[in-house]
């Protein structure tokens, strides 16, 4: 059962664990630039994820795979300069941690030193255990990510719901317990059955943040361009659009163009 929101001057990894213990839900959104991050932080969102989804919504790629470590650092540094309260978590991009624990540590150190981010996020369970351990041993907080892991999309071949079968569900439960044991401070669960997600949330003491994982977890995350209705192509069941910015922005831009062409802009009060 959720409780009233407590005022936190600054969100830390410990804050999130405390919020779970109090039954207080955690709010999380993506941001990739200074202006948007400033708005998200000012609105009181607890966690800002500088997601590798920037590959899709900022660069127009079909998947998250093409974005580089340098590009992630650029986006993360822009976000960090904007925030006063939110915890900033930065995705380690595809290829920067999966095969070599030493490379994983180097990548995480670069993100922390060059962007000023507060934590990194990594997709996977036991298969990336050594990379997680090495990063945590260096004192860098790690958020896990299980269920649908977009960096493995070509392995899965689909973005459909994960862990519907017993064997995969059991592996997910084991991976969640492993991530907690290793020292991860939270886990994102993406596109898994709600009942399974709730079971996982109840089995660990660290927060479980859901995206398409039902309401029985400890918090929720969405891509900000999706929840503000800035794109119209992406409409999964789990997405709630809080605005229709695509329509509103299009109308404003058309009005701007019309005002210029008609001579209405600038008027006498808008010039020197």
How would you describe the overall organization of this protein?
The chain is an alpha/beta fold. It has two domains: 13-241, TIM Barrel (Alpha-Beta Barrel), CATH 3.20.20; 244-272, no CATH class. 41% of the residues lie in helices and 14% in strands. It is built from eleven helices and eight strands. It has helices at residues 13-22, 34-42, 54-57, 69-80, 101-115, 129-137, 153-156, 166-182, 194-203, 224-227, 245-262; strands at 26-30, 47-50, 87-91, 119-123, 142-147, 186-190, 208-211, 219-222. It has an eight-stranded parallel beta barrel, surrounded by seven helices. Helix 4 (69-80) runs parallel beside helix 5 (101-115) and helix 5 (101-115) packs across helix 6.
Give the C-alpha Rg: 20 Å
CATH-assigned homologous superfamily of the largest domain: Phosphoenolpyruvate-binding domains
| Shape category | globular
Strands, total number: 8
Under the CATH scheme, which architecture of the largest domain would be assigned?
Alpha-Beta Barrel
What value does the average pLDDT take? 94
Query: How are the strands ordered across the major sheet?
Result: 1-2-3-4-5-6-7-8
Secondary structure category? alpha/beta
- Looking at the structure, the CATH topology of the largest domain is TIM Barrel
Count of helix runs = 11
Helix content: 40-55%
Percentage of residues in DSSP E strands = 5-15%
N/C terminus separation: 58 Å
Instruction: Write the element-wise H/E pattern from the N-terminal end onward.
Output: HEHEHHEHEHEHHEHEEHH
- List low-pLDDT spans: none
Total domains, how many? 2
CATH class of the largest domain: Alpha Beta
The largest β sheet comes out as:
8 strands, parallel, barrel
């Amino acid at each position: 059962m959720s409780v009233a929101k407590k005022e936190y001057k600054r969100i830390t990894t410990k804050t999130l664990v405390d919020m779970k213990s109090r039954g207080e839900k955690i709010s999380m959104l993506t941001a990739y630039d200074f202006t948007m991050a400033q708005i998200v932080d000012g609105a009181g969102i607890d966690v800002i994820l500088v997601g590798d989804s920037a590959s899709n919504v900022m660069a127009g790629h079909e998947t998250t795979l093409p974005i580089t470590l340098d590009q992630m650092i650029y986006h993360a540094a822009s976000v960090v300069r904007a925030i006063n309260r939110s915890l900033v978590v930065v995705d380690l991009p595809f290829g920067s941690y999966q095969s070599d624990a030493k490379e994983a540590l180097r990548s995480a150190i670069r993100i922390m030193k060059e962007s000023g981010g507060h934590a990194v996020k990594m997709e996977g369970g036991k298969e990336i255990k050594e990379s997680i351990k090495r990063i945590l041993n260096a004192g860098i907080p790690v958020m896990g990510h299980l269920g649908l892991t977009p960096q493995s999309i070509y392995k899965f071949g689909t973005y459909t719901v994960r862990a519907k079968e017993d064997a995969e569900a059991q592996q997910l439960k084991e991976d969640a317990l492993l991530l907690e044991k290793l020292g991860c401070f939270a886990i994102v669960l993406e596109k898994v059955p709600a009942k399974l997600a709730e079971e996982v949330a109840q089995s660990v003491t660290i927060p479980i943040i859901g995206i398409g994982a039902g309401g029985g977890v400890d918090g929720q995350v969405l891509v900000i361009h999706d929840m503000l209705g800035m794109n119209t192509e992406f409409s999964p069941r789990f997405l709630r659009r809080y605005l229709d910015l695509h329509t509103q922005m299009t109308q404003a831009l058309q009005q701007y163009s019309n005002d210029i062409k008609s001579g209405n802009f600038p008027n006498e009060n808008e010039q020197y």
